[in-house]
Amino acid sequence: MKDRTKVSVNDVHQYLIYKYNVELCALEMRTHQARQNRMDTKLQRYFNSTPIRNAFARWMVYATYTNRTYTIAELVDEIGSNRQTISDIVKDCEAEGWIEADRQDNRCDCKASPILVENFEDYADHRRTLINNVSGEEFSDLRNFERTMSIGFALNKHYNANSTSVDNVLKFIE
C-alpha cells in the first residue's frame, strides 16, 4: 500500500509541476509579446528595447517604492552589466526625466521619477491581467499541494517539520 501511495503522491506532484511549467512558458511568451507590442511611447520603446534597460527600470521603481537609491556601482553589480552601459542608461533616463539622479563628487544616486513609477504601474496592471489569464491557478495548485503534503506529515515525530519538500513526505511513506 505504501508503494502505491508513494507513486500516487509523486505522480500528482509531477503532474502539477508539468501543468505549472506549461503555464509558466505561456506567461513568459505572452510577456515577451507584450514587451514587443507595448511600444506606444518613447518610454516604452526605450525600456522594452533591451533586457538590461527593462531591468534597470525595475530597479529604479523598486528604489522609489522602498525609499532608497542605487549607485551606478550597485546597479552594475546587481543587474549584471558593465559600468559604461549603466552610465549610458542613467544619462539617457536623466535627460528624459525618467529618473532622479543626485550627483555628488564621484557618486550618482538614482531612483525612478514619478513618470517612470506611473508607467510601471500601468505595466503592472497589464501584467496582472496576463497572469490572471494564464497561470494563477496552476501555481496555486502546486503550492497548495506542496504545503498540504508538508503540513500533513509535520506532526509525525519522524518527519522534519522544517522541511516542505515532497521528497521528505515520500521518505515518510516508505
A few lines on this structure:
With 174 residues, the protein is mainly alpha-helical. It has helices spanning 2-37, 42-47, 51-65, 72-80, 83-96, 114-134, 136-154, 166-173; strands at 70-71, 99-104, 107-112.
SSE blueprint:
Layout: H1 2-37, H2 42-47, H3 51-65, E1 70-71, H4 72-80, H5 83-96, E2 99-104, E3 107-112, H6 114-134, H7 136-154, H8 166-173
Antiparallel strand pairs: 1-3, 2-3
Descriptive overview:
With 174 residues, the chain is mainly alpha-helical. It folds into 2 domains: 77 residues, no CATH class; 75 residues, Winged helix-like DNA-binding domain superfamily/Winged helix DNA-binding domain (Arc Repressor Mutant, subunit A, Orthogonal Bundle), CATH 1.10.10.10. It is 74% helix and 8% strand. It has a 3-stranded antiparallel β-sheet. Strand 2 and strand 3 form a beta hairpin. The longest helix is centred in the N-terminal third of the chain and has 36 residues.
The portion of residues assigned to helices is over 70%
Number of helices: 8
How many independent structural domains?
A: 2
Question: What is the overall silhouette?
Answer: elongated
- Rg, Cα atoms, Å: 22 Å
Going across the major beta sheet, what is the strand order? Answer: 1-3-2
pLDDT under 50 segments (min length 5)?
159-164
End-to-end C-alpha gap: 10 Å
Order of helices and strands: HHHEHHEEHHH
The total count of strands amounts to 3
> What percentage of amino acids are in beta strands?
5-15%
Major sheet characteristics: 3 strands, antiparallel
Secondary-structure content class: mainly alpha
* Mean model confidence by pLDDT: 85
